[in-house]
Amino acid sequence: MNYKELSDVFKILSNDKRLEILDLLSCGELCACEIQKKFNVTQPTLSYDMKLLKEASLIIERIDGRTHYYNLNQEYFEKIRNIFNKLSTEKANCCCHR
Question: Domain residues for 69?
Fold first, then answer.
């Protein structure tokens, strides 16, 4: 993952509703209808947010018949965690040479 990709992810996460959706999904897989009821949003609004989260690789979609299920993409969140760990601990590439 490069910094441009990470920046794009943060743009998507700048929406509080999307952050709430991710928080809800941290408890496990949910169908779109459960998420829609929880946030009292229209289906098109939810579809748009889920599309953005999916395109950013933050969530995984599973379709069973006409029902769409969503879950966090744990592997992708691990990549994000690794970047922050690197930024907070790695000094070998520091340009200031302190």
Answer: 3-82
Angle at the Cα of 54 from the Cα atoms of 53 and 60, rounded to 5 degrees: 120
* CB-CB contact of 52 with 12 (8 Å): yes
Q: How big is the chain by its Cα radius of gyration, in Å?
A: 16
Question: How much of the chain exceeds pLDDT 90, in percent?
Answer: 71
- Residue pair 61/46 in contact (Cβ under 8 Å)? The answer is no
**Within a domain: 39:** yes
Domain total of the chain = 1
d(CA 22, CA 58): 8
Q: Is there a domain that residue 54 lies in? A: yes
pTM for this entry: 0.83
